[in-house]
Amino acid sequence: MEENLLKHYKYNPTILLGVDGATFHILDYLIAEGMMPNMSRFMDGGVRAELLSTRHPLTPPAWTTLMTGREPGNHGIFDFIWAERRDQEVYFTLNNFRDIQVETVWSMVSRAGGRATTLNYPLMAPPPEINGTIIPGLVSWKHLRRSIHPKDLYDRLKELPGFNPKEVAWDFDREKKATKVIPREEIKSWVEHHLRREQQWYQIFEYLQSNRPSDLTGILLDGVDKLQHICWRHLDPDCSATVADDFDREVQQLALQYFKDLDKFFGYVMDTARDQMRIFVASDHGFGPTEKVFRVNEWLSEKGYLKWTDTENLSKDERKKLEYMANNHFVHLDWDNTIAYAQSSATNGIHIQVQSAPGEPGISPNEYEDFCTRLCDELLAIEDPATGTRVVTEVLRREEAFPGAKNDRCPDLTLKLFDHGFISTLRKQPILWDRPEVAGTHQPEGIFMAYGPGIKRGVRLELQSISDITPTLLHSLGMEIPSNLEGKVMASAFASDYMEKYPVRFGEPTIQPDSYALQDQKPELSEDEQESIMDQLRALGYVE
Amino acid sequence: MDAVSNSEKQSILSFAVETLNEMTSDWDNEYDEPIGPKTKLIGDLAFESIDVVQLIVAIEEEFQSRSLSFEQLLMKDGRYVDEIVVEELVEFLDSQLNTA
Questions:
Q1: Any idea which of A55-64, A191-200, A214-223, B64-73 has the lowest mean pLDDT?
Q2: Planar angle of CA B56, B58, B62, nearest 5 degrees
Q3: What gap in Å lies between CA B89 and CA B14, rounded to an integer?
């Protein structure tokens, strides 16, 4: 007789499989090729829809919206970093859990008396106290022990066969290489690293499901994003003509093995859920090809809105250092003569300097609107000289891109490029650079799927929103939906008789996280510390 | 620096030693002496700059503050220090916490 799994849980057990950067463009192709039979079974037995990311489809804001049901303008996360200009320097630090200004779904479940497990989700360190388990993502192996909740879990994980914290956690040195053009001979070992890394996470998931089951269990698998950035042409059937030699075919086979392994994991999760748990799948954004890079700070410089630091009067050592910095940072700007600049390639954002007092650098507050309008018009008029097509297809003002009460840290303008590529902040020519090979970049439409009791079967839904994931998970669990979430329950994913029996119930609004009170001030970082952080950001692929 | 003596400093020292032991327990360091007031974060424990940042986060979590002036610990005469000794860290925290 089938065991009733539900007796182990306070709420309806629900699983969230986060697949960073997953796109149906690749998944449907692999399913059609017979390489992902379990994914096919999942889609046939459940629902699927494209999932619209945040207005700028980037990992930190998008996953945070997914985890909170709030838009970036309210949760306050727009980038991997938080930057502030002080005098002639810009100080960076990495965003972490204490920068999320609203409650996460893990906390909502915990506060309602349930248990939550979150594995490899970003910005979950330092880990908050919840009833459940936290193993955060984007943490170096050296700090994994301290970043895990509960603290004694680390030693139990070390007893798992083959457990290797250096593979589980983020390998910043390895990923840093991957953001540049990886030497051909290193691509295979880099893909193999991600194959091994995901196996570590599969094992941890299985261990926790058996030994510390939670009402809500979320795991984030980020190898899809990593592989697609570097190996897009090996995976995209539209680029198959570029996979021309034996080496490329070996890389392709390794990349395909990643997806076969992912499919096995899906099969495992479906089998252990035994049609008694609901499984949701979501990506933070989609993916597609990019062939060109727009060097926006160079363009701003040519327009006279940005001035690079003058190098003529520097010593040889100072100039050498500046040249190094210019290739790795944007930060050496002449702030007294700069009006507009991009500080991070990740955000595709332009910041505008507004005078805090007459005579200060920047434009006066009453010039702001006219300047924004002029800059938007000029950006939208940029043409690719090779094709005559527009490079910037949309420019969003702060309130358009990220409306909300916590949007003071976001850029004044957010750019959408013709291929959804990321901007470059570097001091390099040409302004529009042709990549030597097609690479992968983020697209707004990711994936959503659901499977299990009460879920429709074999149905394609219309476009859904990433902010709807948290309320949908809460509804699956059988919990009330906090009244202040911007996301809505995806009612169309559930069978009509289920929704009639279990209608959406609204409850009290979420509460501020305990860490909110600690958001008063950030420590200043030394140049070395900033450099180390910048190395991490380069490793993430979004700072040059 | 004077030896760590009073009970408040002893309490901070205990926290620092416990945190450093926990933080470095998996680092495969060659340093096999017990961590104490004279231990050097960089010279003995092989701290890198990002490890200092993580230590700052741990301290902020422990003392529930993000407004400690760490630049006073990390900078001397306008330059960033090459080394931090545990007892310097304790002295810094003691002065910061007593003036906060």
A1: B64-73
A2: 115
A3: 12
Please tell me which of the candidates A146, A521, A529 has its beta carbon nearest to residue B66.
A521
Query: Closest Cα of chain B to A100: distance in Å?
Result: 15
Q: In whole angstroms, give the CA distance from residue A461 to residue A464.
A: 8
What are φ and ψ of residue B62, in 5° steps?
-65, -45
Phi, psi of A222 (to 5 degrees): -105, 5
Enumerate chain B positions whose Cβ falls within 8 A of a Cβ in A: 22-23, 25-27, 48-54, 56-58, 60-61, 64-68, 70-71, 74-75, 80
Alpha carbons B45 and A254: distance in angstroms, whole number: 38
- Give the pLDDT confidence score for residue A235 in this predicted structure: 96
pLDDT in tens, B35-73: 999 999 999 998 886 788 788 888 988 888 777 888 788
Residue type, A221: L
Q: A82 pairs with which residues across the strands? A: A93
| CA dihedral (A16, A20, A21, A27) positive or negative | negative
In sequence order, which ranges of A329-421 are alpha helices (DSSP H)? Answer: 368-380, 398-401
Nearest residue of A to residue B78, measured between CA atoms: A526
| Contact present, A54 and A71 (Cβ < 8 Å) | yes
Model confidence at B98: pLDDT above 90: no
- Search chain B and give the residue with CA nearest A144: B23
Burial A486-510 (b: 16+ CB within 10 A, else e): bbbbbeebbeeebbeeeeeeeeeeb
Of A195, A189, A149, A141, the C-alpha closest to A168 is A141
User: Which residues of chain B neighbour A528 with C-beta distances below 8 Å?
Assistant: 49, 80
In whole angstroms, how far apart are CA A58 and each of A8, A103, A358? 36, 20, 36
Q: Which of residues 75-104 of A touch B (CB under 8 A)?
A: 93-94, 96, 98
Q: What is the dihedral of CA A449, A451, A455, A458, to 10 degrees?
A: 70
Of A96, A141, A518, the CB nearest to B65: A518
d(CA A39, CA A34): 10
Q: List the 103-142 stretch of A: residues with Cβ below 8 A of B.
A: 126, 140-142
Q: Do B65 and A165 touch (CB under 8 A)?
A: no
Q: Residue A84's CB: how many other CB atoms inside 10 A?
A: 12
What whole-number distance in Å separates Cα of residue A470 and Cα of residue A490? Answer: 10
Q: Where are the alpha helices (DSSP H) in B29-76?
A: 49-63, 71-74
DSSP assigned state of A119: E
- Side by side, the strands of the sheet bearing A286-295 are A423-424, A286-295, A432-443
Task: Please list the residues that pair with A481 across neighbouring strands.
Answer: A506
Give the Å distances, CA to CA, from A47 to A19, A228, A463: 16, 24, 12
Contacts of A373 (CB under 8 A, 6+ apart): none
Q: How confident is the model at residue A168 (pLDDT cuts 50, 70, 90)?
A: very high
